[in-house]
Amino acid sequence: MTNAKRVCTECGTTVFADAPQGVCSVCLFRTGLASLDNENDEAFAPTVARMLKDFGDYELLEEIGRGGQGVVYRARQKSLNRIVALKVIGLAHWATEAHVKRFRLEAEAAASLNHPCIVPIYEVGERDGACYFSMGLVEGGQLDAVAKREPVPLDHAAELIAKLARAVHYAHEHGIVHRDIKPGNILLDAEGEPHLTDFGLARLVETESTVTRTMEVLGTPSYMAPEQAVGNNAGVTSATDIYGLGAVLYQLLTGHPPFAGGTTYETVRLVLDTEP
Q: Active site residue: 37, 57, 128, 180, which one?
């Protein structure tokens, strides 16, 4: 690949001169599947297919999830011939310094932890206008899917939460607060063992930064502690994660989250003003 640079024709981010169709990886990711399904876009589809398959040292096999922090792919790391989960976030024109720092904090926080119930981080990097990191692939799916089907028996729910609580306690001992504990961030392996992932909202609690000082509401409203709901990030402590574990336990036992309004605002008001 040449070192010459150009600007993505879609979003304006800087890319290498030989970027396919002159667009960055993120724009290809965003439109790739639609383009592949569009019979009128035959010229673009082969390029998208190649780009979606080849991402540096990683061969992208399939998309397995997406959220506010990026897109997650099942991928093969070519150099080590191993299957991993690859998370990609775009650094397009709308991505602020806080977005990038928050993504990097996710990788930094998770990579510093070594616990059987925390998904490990392998590598962090940037490519063609995208920031990425690879992590262990947990094949069993999200706890969210289990929780939505039907209430979980008390003994099993208590066992899951106890294992997660030990993982969270380990993170707290290392100065890290997760800040977004919810069923969607808990993965189950083939044996049904839980693994906590997505430290996109985590921070090193002893570190002051422009990211952690902003008055943004960080977290998922249905499982959000009141201090998060009012945007008081300075008030977020390890107790916030304990609250999140309690909210997850509530959903496991009842089949629904403790608070769920029609909009984010309504949910936040429920968190602040009502009981579950």
A: 180
The question of whether 57 is a catalytic residue gets the answer no
DSSP 176-228: EE-----GGGEEE-TT--EEE---TT-EETT---HHHHS----S-GGG--HHH
Fold assignment, 5-135: Phosphorylase Kinase; domain 1 (3.30.200)
CATH class of 143-273: mainly alpha
Per DSSP, 139 falls in state T
Q: Spell out the per-residue pLDDT of the chain, length 276, in tens.
A: 445 556 676 666 665 555 555 656 556 555 544 443 444 444 434 444 455 567 889 999 998 887 666 788 999 999 999 999 998 876 555 556 776 677 677 677 778 899 999 999 898 887 766 778 899 999 888 998 888 888 999 999 999 999 999 999 999 998 888 888 999 899 999 999 999 988 755 654 444 444 444 434 556 788 888 888 777 777 788 999 999 999 999 999 999 999 888 888 888 888 888 887
pTM for this model (two decimals):
0.74
Q: Where are the domains of the chain?
A: 5-135, 143-273
